[in-house]
């Protein structure tokens, strides 16, 4: 048994042990998730993951799990270069689908991605609910970090779909947890930040397969900035806005459920880019590094492009040109790449982002404050606008009780009413490949983050913010939730094998 384990570990070590290396995000070189790690393992079973953790923790070696590194900043690990990464993408079994009428459950392993499980379910007449993320992200990674889609009506944090979990704790033991309301262990496990251990398996709730319509309306900026966001968005199973500040417009995207026999074969892709588009966008956006005018030009161009549906028809593979569109739940809510196209980052189109949640009632006020800051940048002769291909994404979240969730109603010193849900301000921006890679008016982005954190009770998304932003936002988090989370963490991982800089900054390890 020991010899076997040793051989497995030797076999799956991807890199040599002695030299430390950078572990990058999906954006590749220049975008570290961990600045220095000793080794990246790529096991293919839960048992192998258990063996790796046992061996590492016995030697005091820090461990972090990683799915597809679909995160933005150097916040995955702690700063200990002895850290090893357990890359989970090959631990991707799906089993035990059980349906009872319109609802059911399925068991997935850590490294299963959303497209993978959605396809598997669709082949068997089932589908994910609205607790999903529309890209190649693992279920383990999404559940660990509190990732979410966008809905005020339905649960939309991925971990809200979890019914049970197996977590490999700091001793390398597999701990089984069942969903249980008001239980501190469950409240910690549903946004664990990877600090309880490696999420190895999750049982999630699913639905019978269905179709979805997607529709898009264009609104004037003032209709959202001075509107009733809850009334506008709460009727829909999924809904979000894209803000186009250069033209003072919003795209309002809404989704609804249709029977599985409805006609339509639409397939969505937010990230699919042709080689020609990729090269043009890179030239256009790099041109904006020192030129506000160039940024406004590209923003207006992207706005015009995104007024049409980013959907194709799957049978003839032709673009759909008018709203609404109809297709399978998987094709419309997750989708993927079109043939012969790649995601933007494969054309050197890289981004930074910032994501902060506020109570939904304060959403319009937060956006008005951002508008003031945009106007201020123009008054200062350094006008900033959105430089991302799909605009600024405004998402929504129904309350979900988890100690570290962005939409929990738990409040501490900074009180606020989160009972109607949250608005997430998700502001991606292009990072030039030229010069020192600064963005146009880089200082403005710092002012934006600091202003919002100081003036609103915002909570950070756990993979879309810098270390500095986490540090600034700690004051908005509920101290009681942090204390109780830390107590559960200490039971699972007393020796802090799974520590991360995020956990250190918020004071839970
Ligand atoms: C194109 C794109 C679109 C996105 N869209 C959304 C969105 O709509 N909504 C949203 O909320 N987020 C979104 N995200 C963020 C994404 O959901 C999270 O960053 C998610 O954690 C990434 O999952 P991953 O499997 O790639 O994990 P990684 O990026 O590899 O890891 C993320 C973190 O989770 C930990 N981790 C990973 N796997 C496990 C595990 N099995 N057990 C314990 N800890 C683990 C890692 O140590 C790390 O700290 C998006 C990201 C990208 C790149
Ligand atoms: C245990 O971990 C050490 C350090 O990462 C590694 O060198 C060794 O090969 C591992 N031992 C086994 C039995 O896997
Ligand atoms: C998605 O991720 C898996 C690994 O989890 C990988 O095998 C696959 O190629 C990826 N698909 C795309 C479209 O990037
Ligand atoms: C909470 O859940 C854990 C893990 O499932 C269990 O061990 C514990 O007994 C539960 N606590 C209470 C108070 O029910
Ligand atoms: C789609 O939006 C348009 C307005 O842009 C509206 O007239 C139409 O009724 C909507 N369709 C659906 C199915 O919601
Ligand atoms: C879908 O099926 C239902 C019954 O199962 C039927 O009433 C309806 O007419 C069908 N719709 C279409 C578009 O085929
Ligand atoms: C919260 O308020 C209490 C009492 O006023 C104070 O002692 C504590 O320092 C505050 N905590 C934070 C994190 O601000
Ligand atoms: C912008 O200016 C910086 C510093 O002057 C320079 O290094 C960089 O190459 C310029 N970018 C472009 C696209 O010209």
Automatic annotation (TrEMBL):
EC number of this enzyme: 1.1.3.37
GO cellular component: membrane
Keywords recorded for this protein, A-Z: Oxidoreductase, Signal
PROSITE patterns xref list: FAD_PCMH (PS51387)
Signal peptide: 1-19
Pathway: Cofactor biosynthesis; D-erythroascorbate biosynthesis; dehydro-D-arabinono-1,4-lactone from D-arabinose: step 2/2
Alphabetized Gene3D superfamilies for the sequence: 3.30.465.10, Uridine Diphospho-n-acetylenolpyruvylglucosamine Reductase, domain 2
Pfam families in the cross-refs: ALO, FAD_binding_4
GO molecular function: D-arabinono-1,4-lactone oxidase activity; FAD binding
Domain named FAD-binding PCMH-type: residues: 33-209
Stated name of the protein: D-arabinono-1,4-lactone oxidase
């Amino acid at each position: 048994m020991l010899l076997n384990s040793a051989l497995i570990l030797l076999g799956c070590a991807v890199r040599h042990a002695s030299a430390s290396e950078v572990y990058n995000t999906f954006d590749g070189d220049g975008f570290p998730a961990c600045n220095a790690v000793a080794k990246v393992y790529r096991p293919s079973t839960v048992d192998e993951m258990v063996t790796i953790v046992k061996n590492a923790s016995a030697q005091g070696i820090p461990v972090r799990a990683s799915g597809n590194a679909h995160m933005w900043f150097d916040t995955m690990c702690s700063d200990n270069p002895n850290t090893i990464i357990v890359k989970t993408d090959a631990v991707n079994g799906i089993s035990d689908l059980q349906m009872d009428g319109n609802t059911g459950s399925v068991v997935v392993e850590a490294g299963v991605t959303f497209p993978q499980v959605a396809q598997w379910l669709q082949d068997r007449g089932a589908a994910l609910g609205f607790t999903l993320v529309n890209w190649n992200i693992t279920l383990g990674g999404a559940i660990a970090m509190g990732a979410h889609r966008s809905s005020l009506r339905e649960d939309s944090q991925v971990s809200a779909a979890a019914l049970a979990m197996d977590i490999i704790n700091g001793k390398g033991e597999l701990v089984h947890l069942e969903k249980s309301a008001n239980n501190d262990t469950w409240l910690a496990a549903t946004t664990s930040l990877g600090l309880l251990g490696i999420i190895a398996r999750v049982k999630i709730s699913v639905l019978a397969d269905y179709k979805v319509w997607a529709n898009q309306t264009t609104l004037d900026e003032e209709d959202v900035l001075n509107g009733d966001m809850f009334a506008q968005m709460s009727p829909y199973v999924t809904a979000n806005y894209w803000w186009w500040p250069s033209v003072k417009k919003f795209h309002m995207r809404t989704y609804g459920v249709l029977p599985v026999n409805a006609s339509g074969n639409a397939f969505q892709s937010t990230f699919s880019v042709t080689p020609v588009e990729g090269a043009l966008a890179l030239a256009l956006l790099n041109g904006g590094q020192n030129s506000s005018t160039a940024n406004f030009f590209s923003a207006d161009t992207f706005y015009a492009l995104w007024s049409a549906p980013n959907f194709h028809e799957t049978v003839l593979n032709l673009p759909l040109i008018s709203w609404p569109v109809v297709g399978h739940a998987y094709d419309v809510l997750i989708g993927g790449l079109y043939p012969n196209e790649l995601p933007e980052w494969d054309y050197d189109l890289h981004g930074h982002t910032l994501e902060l949640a506020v109570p939904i009632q304060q959403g319009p006020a937060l956006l008005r404050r951002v508008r003031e800051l945009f106007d201020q940048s123009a008054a200062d002769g350094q006008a900033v606008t959105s430089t991302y291909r799909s605009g600024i994404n405004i998402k929504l979240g129904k309350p979900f009780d988890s100690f570290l969730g962005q939409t929990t109603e738990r409040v501490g010193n900074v009180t606020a009413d989160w009972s109607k849900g949250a608005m997430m301000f998700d502001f991606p921006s292009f990072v030039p490949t030229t010069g020192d890679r600064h963005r146009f008016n880089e200082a403005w982005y710092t002012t934006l983050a600091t202003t919002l954190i100081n003036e609103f009770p915002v909570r950070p998304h756990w993979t879309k913010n810098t270390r500095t932003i986490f540090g600034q936002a700690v004051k908005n988090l509920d101290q009681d939730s942090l204390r109780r989370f830390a107590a559960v963490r200490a039971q699972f991982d007393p020796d802090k094998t799974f520590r991360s800089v995020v956990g250190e900054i918020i004071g839970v390890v």
